[in-house]
Design goal:
Main location: Golgi
Largest sheet: 5 strands, mixed
Protein name: Carbohydrate sulfotransferase
Number of domains: 2
Strand content: 5-15%
Family: Belongs to the sulfotransferase 2 family.
Number of helices: 14
GO molecular function: sulfotransferase activity
Order of helices and strands: HHEEHHEHEHHHHHHEHHH
Oligomer: single chain
Keywords: Carbohydrate metabolism, Glycoprotein, Golgi apparatus, Membrane, Signal-anchor, Transferase, Transmembrane, Transmembrane helix
Length: 294
């Protein structure tokens, strides 16, 4: 008799739904286990919500995390919210996807409107192995010559603080930051007191507030295509919109990340792991095998 009450789902769909349930449970359990540290700020302010992109037409909210396919997801959101203005995400130039006025974020609404959307809209985010994301951010922001604004804003500060006998040119340009110096800057208590981390290396936990906002779906960079298309399917647009795929040869891999960590002392590795520990636990990433934790 009970069997008739079980909804019949296509097998693949039900497996995916179960997978997302497991991911949600993992977040809930981690939040509960770390409630002392994670519940310090009970009330979210509008400023906490500037990473949550809202799509009114499909009642979706996407929390974007830099270095986790966020350019392509912003492109997709522009197609979804553009009311026919765009049809192919990849026709939207990357820099246009990052123009803040092209997408509406949750902090632009009134408190009652925010609460209504958080309660009723489908909310999702994408995560990535924390140290792979960190190396990706470092490579993108500190090793590319064109990122002069980052070199000036952060590079000069990192060189000044972390490099003994820095040359005048290095202090002025900040364009040759070593990964070891970047790590030393991140674990320096002074950095944390001075200002919040830049969004490219801020924790997902701090950007998207998963202990306060109940996400319906947690996509992973490692299964980006399947998770993205599943979300588009649930949004009812999967028949005409697919997540853009492209093989990027410059992508940061696990092997590459291992290499970057070779020169980091075990003391610094341990301190850095502590900074990103909640992201590791919350999204079920194991401690990397290359780490020499103290």
């Amino acid at each position: 008799m009970l069997d008739s009450l079980v909804p019949v789902l296509p097998l693949q769909l039900s497996n995916t739904a179960i997978l997302h349930q497991i991911r949600r449970d993992q977040v809930t359990d981690t939040c509960r286990a770390n409630s002392v540290s994670s519940r310090k700020r009970r009330v979210l302010t509008p400023n906490d919500l500037k990473h949550l992109v809202v799509d009114e037409d499909h009642e979706m909210i996407y929390c974007y995390v830099p270095k986790v396919a966020c350019t392509n997801w912003k492109r997709v959101m522009m197609v979804l919210t553009g009311r026919g203005k765009y049809s192919d995400p990849m026709e939207i130039p990357a820099n246009e996807a990052h123009v803040s006025s092209n997408l509406k974020t949750l902090n632009q609404y009134s408190i009652p409107e925010i609460n209504h959307r958080l309660k009723n809209y489908m909310k999702f985010l994408f995560v990535r192995e924390p140290f792979e994301r960190l190396v990706s951010a470092y490579r993108n922001k500190f090793t590319q010559k064109y990122n002069t604004s980052f070199h000036k804003r952060y590079g000069t500060k990192i060189v000044r603080r972390q490099r003994k006998n820095a040359t005048q040119e290095a202090l002025r340009k900040g364009d040759d930051v070593k990964f070891e110096e970047f790590v030393a800057y991140l674990i320096d208590p002074h950095t944390q007191r001075e200002e919040p981390f830049n969004e490219h290396w801020q924790t997902v936990y701090s950007l998207c507030h998963p202990c306060h906002i109940h996400y319906d779906l947690i996509g992973k960079y490692e299964t980006l295509e399947e998770d993205s298309n599943y979300i588009l399917q649930l949004a009812g647009v999967g028949n005409y919109l697919k997540f853009p795929t492209y093989a990027k040869s410059t992508r940061t891999t696990d092997e590459m990340t291992t290499e970057f960590f070779q020169n980091i002392s075990s003391e610094h590795q341990t301190q850095l792991y502590e900074v990103y520990k909640l992201d590791f636990l919350m999204f079920n990433y194991s401690v990397p095998s290359y780490l020499k934790l103290e």
